[in-house]
Amino acid sequence: MEIRNVKAFLAVAASHSFSQAAQQLGYSQSAITVQIQNLESELGVRLFERLNNQVSLTQAGKNFMFYAHELINVVTSATAGAKKASQISGILRIGSVESITTSLLPDILLAFHKHYPAVQTVVYTTGKDSLTDMLVKNNVDLFFTLDRRKTDPQFKNKLLQKQPIVFVGPPNQRFSAAKLTLAQIVQWPFILTEAGESYRYELDRLLAGEGLHIQPILEIGNAETIIHLVKRGMGYSFLPFFAVKNALQHQSIQQLPVIFPDLQIWAQLVLHKDKWITPEMAAFIDLVQGYLEPAT
């Protein structure tokens, strides 16, 4: 399989145009057409539909997309390795949920850049469902998430560290009881992440099991914004301990003494099971596993 044919396929798929792909790659349009035809002949499937001057992927083309990216990544990494075996370089595409991006990831990225300055790192921050879709489409190499321990045959999960989730509130409030129950706090004003996102989902599930419900006064995805609003006395929240650790140490917020079950949330890395582990991916995974305490 010729790599130039695979590159032509990816260029046409991205631009939805044979002429634009030809311009991008520096070929004539007829050369791009021949390259696609050769690739289709080799694979034994039709990769594109060409109707009404529009180009779109067939289902076979969509299925081949992931592996086409993998082929290019392997060739790029092999070429870079052959040129300079002692220097890890290339592009590392990391996805992450917002709470990890703002709290855990900065120190990890700083350490990774210090060890591997030639690696170009790109970080995408969004929700877990979007990250999963990006992983399937090979738009990210791996992603960080907070979730329960679970398995999916399509992915490989590397559990990194168990993360406690805590209730927090403004710094100066005093409580009449040494311990608070869920029933006591559900009517308080809460600022929470969007419904369905990892620890918010676990909180809603926990409350539903007790016949309780929290109606937040504000839903917002940015943990730093939530912490800032809690500091200002707007309300209470439920966040991973690592996200609020610094604020607790500076006593700008306080942890609430709420009695509730352990929710079993882990920080973890997720990879596609068919993903070839590039040198930069392997280096990043090793660094992260050494940086964070192992999950138990």
What does this protein look like?
- This is Transcriptional regulator, LysR family.
- It comes from Loigolactobacillus rennini.
- Belongs to the LysR transcriptional regulatory family.
- Residues 1-58 form the HTH lysR-type domain.
- It is a single chain.
- This protein has 296 residues and is α/β, with parallel strands linked by helices.
- The chain folds into three domains: 3-81, Orthogonal Bundle (Arc Repressor Mutant, subunit A); 87-161 and 266-291, Periplasmic binding protein-like II (D-Maltodextrin-Binding Protein, domain 2), CATH 3.40.190.10; 165-261, Periplasmic binding protein-like II (D-Maltodextrin-Binding Protein, domain 2).
- It has twelve helices and twelve strands.
- The strands form four sheets. It has a five-stranded mixed β-sheet with strand order 4-3-5-12-6, sandwiched between helices.
- Strand 1 (48-51) and strand 2 (54-57) form a beta hairpin.
- The radius of gyration is 24 Å and the shape is elongated.
- The model has no long low-confidence stretch (mean pLDDT 88).
Secondary structure topology:
Layout: H1 3-15, H2 18-25, H3 29-43, E1 48-51, E2 54-57, H4 59-83, E3 90-96, H5 98-103, H6 105-115, E4 119-125, H7 128-136, E5 142-147, E6 155-163, E7 165-169, H8 182-185, E8 191-192, H9 198-209, E9 218-219, H10 223-231, E10 237-240, H11 241-249, E11 254-255, E12 265-272, H12 279-291
Parallel strand pairs: 3-4, 3-5, 8-9
Antiparallel strand pairs: 1-2, 5-12, 6-12, 7-10, 7-11
Helix pairs in contact: 1-2, 1-3, 1-4, 2-3
